[in-house]
Amino acid sequence: MLLAWCGNRTKGNEAIKQKHIAHIAIAEDEMRILKLISFVLRSAGYIATGVSTGAGLVAAVLSSHSTDCPVDVIICDFYMPDQTGLQIMKELAAQKITVPLVIMSGLSDENILAQLKAEGCSYFLSKPFNPEELLQMVEKILRRS
Fold it and tell me: What whole-number distance in Å separates Cα of residue 24 and Cα of residue 143?
């Protein structure tokens, strides 16, 4: 399990850095898949926050950034009921949120992939995927952060 540093606490006059378990936000409109991804991440020891809309994802990420334990990685389905992954990326960028983002999709349209890369998305996960693939990607991202 990878840990990320999060916040400071003071003891007397000295600041103590606290470790926290990496916080992963997941946006997936298919409840079965959302529950499965959340289960896999929690079983690996991560904090998982799941939402079913793009707006819910943006709200969860923004609210987490006002706490001591902000979201460390975002995993988002490309086709959400209210927004696409590309729209979500742009909205987060407009809010100055620079959290690594993994886009998931069952479609591998080369035009969409090119747009995502042009907008700065470095991580794409093709559905279906196995849990080990997901965990390896999250661990790779956390090591780079």
Answer: 14
